[in-house]
């Protein structure tokens, strides 16, 4: 029988290993995000399937960046159809459809979350963004990318300007350790990696006098008032804030 201590210990070790392995990449990712803030541009975030949980972490979230433009198509969300969501992220051409609304440019950064990093949708997002001059932060697992079936002309590791490695093993599950079948880690690790980037952006940005645009919780005193100016500024260019 597994204990809560066993699970929490293994997760804590995973996060410690991830932080150590990605120290330089986190610094480089923070550099890119700080460049967006200096240019008064946007951080575009994207994912498919359960990686959309990471996109939700980046958008309109207490303590999160306000200059975020989430890329989204309803057919990518398992809650709108589980089997169809898998088929949708494997469909060539969807990235172009999603980017038709608004696409990142040279001052922007695209952040793509995809553990397998091999399906057409996330890969084509990266390719199109880079063709427009945008840098790409790929948050993925190098081990999963290497093991995944080849479904695109490239993969997320190849397309990332900066690659943050979740160290998740193929299949995502983590328990039991000798034959993992459950307790997937990608959602926890993706959020952790993004928070490592945000912490550096805040520390380094404030140290140089940048006004890092961060949301406040609307459920604390003064939260709504603090967010009002951000909503006025970004609501005009990020439709999902309206």
From TrEMBL:
Pfam families (alphabetical): SIS_2
Gene Ontology MF: a single term: isomerase activity
Biological process terms in GO annotation: carbohydrate derivative metabolic process
Domain (SIS): residue spans on this chain: 33-207
Gene3D superfamilies found in the cross-reference section: Glucose-6-phosphate isomerase like protein, domain 1 (3.40.50.10490)
Stored InterPro entries: RpiR-like_SIS (IPR035472), SIS_dom (IPR001347), SIS_dom_sf (IPR046348), SIS_GmhA/DiaA_subfam (IPR050099)
Keywords: Isomerase
Stated name of the protein: Uncharacterized protein, contains SIS (Sugar ISomerase) phosphosugar binding domain
Organism this protein belongs to: Amycolatopsis pretoriensis
């Amino acid at each position: 029988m597994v204990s809560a201590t066993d699970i929490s210990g293994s997760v804590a070790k995973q996060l410690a290993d991830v932080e150590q392995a990605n120290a330089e990449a986190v610094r480089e990712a923070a550099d890119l995000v700080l460049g967006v803030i200096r240019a008064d541009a946007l951080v575009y975030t994207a994912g498919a399937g359960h990686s959309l949980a990471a996109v939700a972490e980046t958008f309109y979230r207490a303590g999160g960046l306000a200059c975020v433009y989430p890329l989204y198509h309803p057919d990518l969300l398992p809650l709108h159809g589980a089997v169809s969501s898998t088929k949708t992220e494997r469909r060539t051409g969807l990235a172009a459809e999603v980017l038709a609304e608004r696409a990142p440019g040279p001052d922007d950064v695209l952040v793509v979350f995809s553990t397998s990093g091999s399906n057409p949708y996330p890969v084509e997002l990266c390719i199109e963004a880079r063709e427009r001059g945008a840098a790409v932060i790929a948050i993925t697992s190098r081990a999963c990318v290497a093991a995944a079936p080849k479904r695109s002309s490239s993969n997320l590791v190849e397309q990332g300007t900066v690659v943050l490695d979740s160290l998740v093993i193929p299949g995502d599950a983590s328990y039991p350790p000798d034959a993992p079948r459950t307790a997937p880690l990608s959602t926890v690790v993706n959020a952790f990696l993004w928070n490592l980037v945000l912490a550096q952006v805040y520390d380094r940005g404030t140290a140089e006098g940048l006004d890092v645009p961060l949301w406040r919780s609307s459920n604390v005193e003064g939260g709504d008032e603090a967010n009002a100016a951000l909503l006025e500024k970004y609501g005009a260019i990020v439709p999902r804030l309206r």
